[in-house]
Amino acid sequence: xxxxxxxxxxxxxxxxxxxxxxxxxxxxxxxxxxxxxxxxxxxxxxxxxxxxxxxxxxxxxxxxxxxxxxxxxxxxxxxxxxxxxxxxxxxxxxxxxxxxxxxxxxxxxxxxxxxxxxxxxxxxxxxxxxxxxxxxxxxxxxxxxxxxxxxxxxxxxxxxxxxxxxxxxxxxxxxxxxxxxxxxxxxxxxxxxxxxxxxxxxxxxxxxxxxxxxxxxxxxxxxxxxxxxxxxxxxxxxxxxxxxxxxxxxxxxxxxxxxxxxxxxxxxxxxxxxxxxxxxxxxxxxxxxxxxxxxxxxxxxxxxxxxxxxxxxxxxxxxxxxxxxxxxxxxxxxxxxxxxxxxxxxxxxxxxxxxxxxxxxxxxxxxxx
Length: 369
Ligand SMILES: Nc1ncnc2c1ncn2[C@@H]1O[C@H](COP(=O)(O)OP(=O)(O)OP(=O)(O)O)[C@@H](O)[C@H]1O
Ligand code: SF4
Ligand SMILES: [Mg+2]
Prior knowledge:
By secondary structure, the chain is α/β, with parallel strands linked by helices. The protein has helices at 55-62, 85-94, 112-123, 129-142, 159-171, 189-206, 217-223, 241-246, 251-258, 297-301, 321-327, 338-353; strands at residues 5-16, 29-40, 44-48, 70-75, 78-79, 95-98, 177-181, 209-213, 226-231, 234-240, 307-308, 315-316, 357-359, 365-367. Residues 16-17, 29, 31, 49, 51-57, 215, 279 line the site of adenosine-5'-triphosphate (ATP).
């Protein structure tokens, strides 16, 4: 594992329902089935795919919240999939999680000061009470809140502010890597860009590595350096975000990109045939063959492996990607509605100008008051 790789998954599988013995009637769910990934220090790495494709399960295995059925997870050069005791405690400080739902993930009976300060008690037990208060104040400032917010309770805050509290809590142990599982999808569109902007600033200023799980391709496009596209427990395409968005090579990625409709939300059914099959009975060969418009006989029997496309870092798992690249035109940029247009303007403002903006009533970006 080279120095610039902070997190690596090697052929990771997570199957649920394997413990029932041979008489068990419960089908085994192949939630993650042979994923290999290498995440570089300081980058923002995105994992995308439809609901149920295994994104959260993979994230939990990477975090050592779940034990893989097979495979290895290496964090900073150490194998962590079996970490216990002191090794696990150290890992919990170095890797943190931001949850999807800022309303459910903060204990409503704890003050913000205690919520943000709690990880310090575990990971910096030598701190005095005053040092802890100072550190909490510093963390609150870092996420755009005020030190006096420490005495308030989560219900006194908006969704976006609560997610900031969650981020401050995640930063408390001074982690090297943060995994966000749909970190903005529960928030109003008007505050999503603020939180994305904050995460970008933090990762740059603190040298943090971010792993972001999202089904919203708009979010991915604007915040990630590299991306992995998952389908039914496997990675089907991976590369720099710029390359994958400009030159998607897997028919599934092409369909995902083509299905960003004018409403700005992702509707995969528009361009793909039928529903995603069950991970407890995945199709043979290429798992996408039941929905792929280009499927041929080989696809039903032979499993494609991730192969390099020739562009740096860009790999794809499709038997026919080269033929398809010559025949299938690149996807036209999707038409956007006013709301989606306003959102993209917001992302641009967040990325280029660095100002914190929100949508006004007309759906246009406006300065935050
Ligand atoms: N503890 C569990 N026991 C059995 N099956 C599970 C368990 N956790 C997840 N699964 C199944 O594994 C598959 C992958 O689920 P997962 O939550 O990882 O998907 P996801 O990509 O995060 O979906 P979403 O976008 O909806 O959050 C699903 O079929 C899910 O029902
Ligand atoms: S291997 Fe076949 S079924 Fe799978 S994505 Fe490629 S063309 Fe489609
Ligand atoms: Mg999930």
